[in-house]
């Protein structure tokens, strides 16, 4: 059952290019299916989350992260009576524009592109589904619905929002200029993203040996569920203790979002998605959980993302992408024909590099420079 404040595929604002409706699927189901079958989605399996793909078979990648966001989003969305297909679409597509080597790659491309408009991975995800995927004879991109595209564009600078608005008046960037919110499904994906990466970075951090459960006892959100796990299962240790702690932590955050968001919805009582767009953000943590989640994020930033081993990898990854950009920018002949012929050469270089997997970027770097920076 879908609530009256949920996005309704039958009342979608539509696609940029008209297409007849599908006989057996809703518009949001079609969007999800197009994402799953896209080239950019398949590439996520070899794109770094925190640890490079070759550093361990069990560490998360952008693909597994996106699947975890989709699972959490659908579970919460079902309780809130939202459209699960739209949630899944946004979750699976939200990182399509991410570069190889995680945030290190994004920072390098943004630096390289400073004189050419910069680089934003959320905007790049929209570029992927609007322009860069080439699957249909009549248009570029995947021709997704407005609601899916709106959810994919999670953040946007004012400069880029103005550029998008000029191309698409009252489009997906309008809310960044006029205020307002996206659908509840999009709001939920934003929060599910945070819940997922906090949990799986705890898991990957401990599995990697870079952080320990003893260190994590400094973080109240983890310590609480570590204690409750041991109280319920005395003597539990190792992987099972880690898994049970994370399971309990995830469950509490999911139930907290459902309770806090339910309270927001009860107070506002929105009668339509239009009322949602005109209100303050409605999908939220409680104040206590927001503080606890923020403290966990600070811990991970200081102890995992800034760990000397992760930073050493980051330095080499930055060099790979900077060298690639400089080489392609200086010599368009090194780019594939689809990119070499672009009117905006710098943006074409960024598009090509952003679409690479980690391992393809390393192979290209070695081919062009003769250097092997990773084993």
TrEMBL record:
<dbReference type="GO" id="GO:0006203">
    <property type="term" value="P:dGTP catabolic process"/>
</dbReference>
<dbReference type="InterPro" id="IPR050135">
    <property type="entry name" value="dGTPase-like"/>
</dbReference>
<dbReference type="InterPro" id="IPR006674">
    <property type="entry name" value="HD_domain"/>
</dbReference>
<keyword id="KW-0378">Hydrolase</keyword>
<dbReference type="Pfam" id="PF01966">
    <property type="entry name" value="HD"/>
</dbReference>
<dbReference type="InterPro" id="IPR026875">
    <property type="entry name" value="PHydrolase_assoc_dom"/>
</dbReference>
<dbReference type="InterPro" id="IPR006261">
    <property type="entry name" value="dGTPase"/>
</dbReference>
<dbReference type="GO" id="GO:0008832">
    <property type="term" value="F:dGTPase activity"/>
</dbReference>
<dbReference type="Pfam" id="PF13286">
    <property type="entry name" value="HD_assoc"/>
</dbReference>
<feature type="domain" description="HD">
    <location>
        <begin position="62"/>
        <end position="198"/>
    </location>
</feature>
<comment type="similarity">
    <text>Belongs to the dGTPase family. Type 2 subfamily.</text>
</comment>
<dbReference type="InterPro" id="IPR003607">
    <property type="entry name" value="HD/PDEase_dom"/>
</dbReference>
<dbReference type="InterPro" id="IPR023023">
    <property type="entry name" value="dNTPase_2"/>
</dbReference>
<protein>
    <recommendedName>
        <fullName>Deoxyguanosinetriphosphate triphosphohydrolase-like protein</fullName>
    </recommendedName>
</protein>
<feature type="region of interest" description="Disordered">
    <location>
        <begin position="1"/>
        <end position="28"/>
    </location>
</feature>
């Amino acid at each position: 059952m879908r609530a009256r404040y949920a996005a309704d595929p039958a009342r979608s604002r539509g696609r940029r290019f008209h297409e007849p409706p599908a006989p057996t699927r809703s518009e949001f189901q079609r969007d999800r299916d197009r994402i799953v079958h896209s080239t950019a989605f398949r590439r996520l399996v070899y794109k770094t989350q925190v640890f490079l793909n070759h550093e361990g078979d069990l560490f998360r990648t952008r693909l597994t992260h996106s699947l975890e966001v989709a699972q959490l989003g659908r579970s919460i969305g079902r309780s809130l009576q939202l459209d699960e297909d739209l949630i899944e679409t946004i979750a699976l597509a939200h990182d399509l524009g991410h570069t190889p080597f995680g945030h290190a790659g994004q920072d390098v491309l943004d630096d390289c592109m400073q004189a050419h408009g910069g680089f934003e991975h959320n905007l790049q995800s929209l570029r992927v589904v609007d322009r860069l995927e080439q699957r249909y004879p009549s248009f570029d991109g995947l021709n997704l619905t407005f609601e899916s595209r709106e959810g994919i564009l999670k953040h946007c600078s004012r400069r880029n929002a103005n550029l998008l608005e000029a191309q698409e008046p009252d489009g997906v960037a309008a809310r960044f200029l006029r205020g307002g919110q996206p659908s509840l499904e999009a709001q939920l994906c934003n929060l599910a993203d945070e819940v997922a990466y906090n949990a799986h970075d705890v898991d990957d951090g401990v599995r990697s040996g870079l952080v320990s459960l003893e260190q994590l006892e400094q973080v109240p959100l983890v310590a609480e569920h570590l204690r409750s796990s041991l109280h319920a299962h005395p003597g539990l240790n190792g992987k099972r203790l880690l898994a049970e702690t994370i399971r309990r932590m995830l469950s509490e955050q999911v139930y907290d979002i459902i309770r806090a968001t339910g309270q927001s919805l009860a107070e506002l009582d929105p009668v339509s998605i239009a009322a949602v767009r005109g209100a303050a953000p409605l999908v939220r943590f409680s104040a206590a959980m927001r503080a606890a989640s923020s403290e966990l994020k600070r811990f991970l930033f200081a102890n995992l993302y800034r760990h000397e081993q992760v930073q050493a990898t980051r330095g080499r990854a930055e060099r790979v992408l900077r060298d690639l950009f400089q080489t392609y920018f200086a010599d368009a002949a090194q780019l594939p024909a689809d990119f070499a012929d672009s009117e905006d050469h710098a943006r074409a270089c960024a598009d090509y590099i952003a679409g690479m997997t980690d391992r393809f970027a390393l192979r290209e770097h070695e081919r062009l420079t003769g250097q092997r920076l990773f084993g």
